[in-house]
Amino acid sequence: MTELFIQACYLAASLLFILGLRGLGDPRKARRGLLLAELGMLAAVVGTLLHHEIVSYTWIAVGAVVGSVLGAWLSLKIPMTLMPERIAFSHAFGGLAVALVGIAEYDHLGAAMNGLQLGATGFEVVLGALTFTGSIMAFGKLQGFIPGKPVTFRGQNLLNGVAIVSTLALVTALVLQPENPVWFWSALALALLIGVTLVLPIGGADMPVVICLLNSYAGLAAAATGFALKNNVLIICGALDGGSGFILGMIMSKAMNRSFSNVLFGAFGATPAAAAAGGADSGPAPKVADLEDAVDVLRAARSVIVVPGYGMAVSQAQHAIRELAAVLKAGGAEVRYAIHPVAGRMPGHMNVLLAEANIPYDQLYDLDAINDDFPATDVALVVGANDVVNPAAKDDPASPIFGMPVLAADAARSCIVLKRSLNPGFAGIENKLFVADNTMLVLGDAKKTIIGFTQALKEH
Amino acid sequence: MTELMESVVFGLYIFTLAAIVGYQVIGRVPHLLHTPLMAATNAIGGISLVGSMVAAGADRGTVSTVLGTIAVAAASLNVVGGFVITDRMLRMFKADQDRGKGGGR
Who among A28, A44, A355 is closest to B50 (CB)? Predict the structure, then answer.
C-alpha cells in the first residue's frame, strides 16, 4: 500500500514537472508553471520519505537544512550579472550529488549488483564526476581564475578520445567483473580528469554551448541513477533535463554555425583561435569618434536598435541603457533591442539582464524577427558585442565565423559601436563593421559612455 | 525475456517517451526565457535528492550515510536555490502592458 502511494507521488511529480516546463513557453504563465514544478518536487520528496529502507531522518534533515539555507541565501543575494557562474556552480553540485549517490550505492551493494545496476551505476558515476569537474572548470573560466582563453595543445582531441573510450571500456569491465573494484575507481578517476580536459580548450565565447552541454550531462547522469535504482521519476527528470540541455546546445551551436558533433566532442574553440593570426594591422583604420559626435547622431535618430553583447554584462550597462532609451523615446525615437542567441555567456543571458533593468520584453527581438529592419533604422547602437555583428560571417569565406547568422548592424544608416579599446575581440577575429564608413567607435567603459550620452541628450 | 532485460527495456521506454515530451515542451520555450529554463531544469535535476535521501537515511553503514548526507545537501541546494532564482528572474520579465501590475502569477 505504501509502495503504491510512493509511486502515485512520483507519477504526480513527473506530470507536474512537465506541466511546469510547459509554462515556461509563455512569459505570462511562467511563474505559475514554476509553482507546479515546485509542487512536483514536494510530491517526490514526500513519497521518498516513506521509502521502506529509510530508518533515520536525522542526516536527511541535516543535509536538507544546510543545502536549502545555502541555496536560498545564494539565490537571493547573487547579482544577475553573475548568472552564468551561478548556473555552472549548480551543475557542479548536481553532478556531485549524482556521483556520490552512485559511489554510496556501489559501496553498499558492490558485486551483489546485477549487470544493469552495475552498468547504470558506472554511467551515473562517470557522468556525475565529469559534470562536477567540468562545471568547476567552466565556473573558473567565467570567474577568471582559470585562463578564459582556450588552452590547447597538440593531440588534445586524440587524448580526449582515448580517455572517453577508456572510460567506456572500464565501465564494461566493471559489468563483466563486478568483484574487482579497480574498474570502478579507475573509471571514476578518469571521468574526473575528462571533465577538466574537455573544458580546458574552450574559449569564453563558446561558453554558452559548454554550459548547455554540462546541463545535458547532469541530466543524463540523473537518468542513469534512475536506471540503477529502478526509479522512474529519476529517469523522467533526467530525460527532461538532459533533453533541455541538448536542445539548447543545438540552438546555440546552430547560432554559431558549428556542427553538433563538433560541439559534442568538445573540439570547438580551436577553430577561431587558429585562424586569428595575420591581417591584424592591414586594412582601413577605424573611425574613433568623440562622445559629442555620437550624441549628434543619436539626437537626429528617429529609430534606434540596441545590440547588446557580453561587454554590456561586463560593464553592467543595462540600467544606463534603459535611461538612455527613455530619453530617446521622449525625443520621439523608436527604441528596440536585437538579441543574438549567443550574445553573452549563456542562452538568454542578455534577456535576463535587460529584464533586470526593467526593459519590457516585448521590446526585445530575436535575430530573425528584427534582422530585416536594420536597413530602415537610423542608428544601430552596438554595446560590447563583436562576433554577433561581424559582417565577415556573411561575405568572407575565409573568416572562421563564415556562415554564422549575424545581426545586420552594418546595414543600419549609421552604427555606433561602444568598445573598451581598439584591441580585437575575444576570438581575435577582425571585424569589418568597426572600420565601415558609416560606423563610429566610441571607446571606453560602455556604462560611462551611455550615461554620458544620456546627460548630453538631456541638456538640449 | 529475463527479468533483467525487462527492466532495461521498461526503463528505456520511459526514458524515450520522456525525452520526446521534453523535446516538444522545451522546443517551445522562447529565447527570451532560456536562462530561467536552465535554472528551472537545474532545480528539477535536483530530483537526485530522491536517491540521496535513501542513501543518507538507510541503514547501510557510515560511508553511505556520509556520502548520502553530502549528496542531500548538494541536491537540496540545487532544488531550493534553483527554484528561488528562477522565480527571481521570472518576476523581472514584464511586458509593456502589464507594467505596475507586478509579475504574471
Answer: A44
Min Cα distance A98 → chain B (Å) is: 6
pLDDT tens digit string along A61-116?
A: 999 999 999 999 999 999 988 899 999 999 999 999 999 999 999 999 888 888 88
Where residue A316 falls (left for φ over 0; alpha for ψ -120 to 50; beta otherwise) is left
Ordered by start, the domain boundaries in chain A are 78-273, 291-458
Range A291-458 has CATH code 3.40.50.1220: yes
Question: In chain A, which residues have their Cβ closer than 8 Å to the Cβ of B68?
Answer: 59-60, 63, 100-101, 104
DSSP state string for A209-234: HHHHHHHHHHHHHHHHHHHHHT-HHH
> ipTM of this model?
0.91
Handedness of CA A311, A313, A314, A317 (dihedral sign): positive
Is B76–A360 a contact, with Cβ atoms under 8 angstroms apart? no
Task: Identify whether A107 is a catalytic site residue.
Answer: no
H-helix or E-strand spanning residue A366: strand A364-366
Count of all residues that appear for chain A in the document: 460
For A219-233, the pLDDT digits (tens) are: 999 999 999 998 999
Nearest to A99 by CA among A259, A253, A274, A218: A218
Tell me if chain A has a CB within 8 Å of the CB of B9.
no
| Catalytically annotated residue among A281, A387, A410, A437 | A387
- A78 touches B at CB < 8 Å: yes
Out of A38, A59, A360, whose CB is closest to B95?
A360
The answer to whether the beta carbons of residues A88 and A142 sit under 8 Å apart is yes
Give the burial class of A52: count Cβ atoms within 10 A of its Cβ; 0-12 exposed, 13-18 middle, 19 or more buried.
exposed
**Cα–Cα distance, A6 to A59 (Å, whole number):** 21
**Strands A334-339 and A303-308, how do they pair?**
parallel
Nearest to A347 among B35, B85, B99 (CB): B35
Bridge-based pairing of strands A379-383 and A364-366 is: unpaired
